Amino acid sequence: MTTFASGTDTLTRDALTVLQPGFTGTTAPDWLLRRLGEGLASVGLFGRNIASAEQLSVLTAQLRAERDDVLVAVDEEGGDVTRLEVRTGSSFPGNHALGAVNDVDLTRDVAAELGRRLAACGVNLNWAPSADVNSNAANPVIGVRSFGAEPGLVARHTAAYVTGLQSAGVAACTKHFPGHGDTAVDSHHALPRIDVPAEVLSERELAPFRAAIAAGTRAVMSAHILVPALDPDRPATLSHRILTELLRRELGYDGLIVTDGMEMRAIADTYGIERGSVLAIAAGADAICVGGGLADDETVRRLRDALVSAVRSGALPEARLAEAADRVRSLARWTTTAKAARPQPDADTEVGLRAARRALRLTGADTFTPLTDPPYVAALSPVANIAVGDETPWGVAAELFRLLPGTETGTFSGEDAGLATLAAAGPRRIVAVVRDEHRHPWMAAALDSILRTRPDTVVIEMGLPQAPPRGTLHIATHGAARVCGRAAAEIIAGA
User: Fold this and answer.
1) Are 264 and 225 in contact (CB under 8 A)?
2) Catalytic residue among 80, 182, 231, 260
3) Which of 116, 124, 330, 406 is the most buried (most CB within 10 A)?
């Protein structure tokens, strides 16, 4: 492919403006700073880019020294999907815990505090909240990232989250349009398909997005899913019918449309990232998210040149690319104005823990006596999905060790997990920690084995609480954030 000019002409600048690339490392590489000077308007951050709040502040200042209105985006949902606290676990419970509490004021307060922390570090666009209605309990990628399975509840909390986040001057990016909740396939790995009538989609999937639009969400992220009732041929990210006719015209949305990561296999393996990016902009998207997996200058160059070539060949109207770039710049102006106009809210550092405590659901608590001796914590650990990642610690062992020094722990999986747990625990009281027991037969079998021999075992479900509660005490945390583990540990130790 031809490499185009240095980035000074309008067409090339517009092509750079619509990209949201990532990079590796905790300081901005020279190539990224150069692209910002040539027209790049957004940068996406991931866990690999963040070591601490102080380091993140230095990084965002480095980016703004090159371009003061740059959009700095991050995938910070709180709960299981955290980038700010990727190495420690989140100070905020995720959506499912907030939905379990079902207090929209609390959801707004949590989002406002999260937004305050993002803004303090120089982040002004958050790829959150997830507005997906998790109607399929077997969903491998949404799960506790959703507020719940009831459209009205998800709509109320999505709106509250948008309001809270944006009150701190951080733009919300409501995702994954038109709804990723009724899927049994992870779009990081393949192209999911939702086969329900348009009427069901309107009443179920679209309700939270209507609420988000009414609440003023500044961005919406598209999903890499095929929805035949809306478009039988192309996934939502590449569908003019879904992005332009439905989202823009029928739902009246006029903010920024961002794609989900274009290197995800649902797009990369079917269309390729260059063609996929051209088709996405033509369909109505305004910003191309790429960088979770591909995070280098070559990727930026390839996508820039693909967009420029498409305009020059007539495959992509130049006016559509210009419109997309204008929407990116418009959002950048909003973040600058919002930061200047809004005094930073007072810190509420304990709001996440309060929410996590309120989200607990206990079975057997009336007969349970808190532990006084250090237990053995067995984490029955599934493979994490890509959105959550495997960098972030989860569970209750660290918090129980703080309350009951001497607590020991081990991680188990597979068909021998139950027997291995019993052997490792010895005479200690067992605390078995699971995550989506209902989706993992080996996990359910391990619990069967443990409870047959040790019926006094405490069971903590840190995923979707779909399996019947069991154990001498069963705690459903509705998520695996660090504060969820702390709240559960407090119950076990009677703290």
Assistant:
1) no
2) 260
3) 124
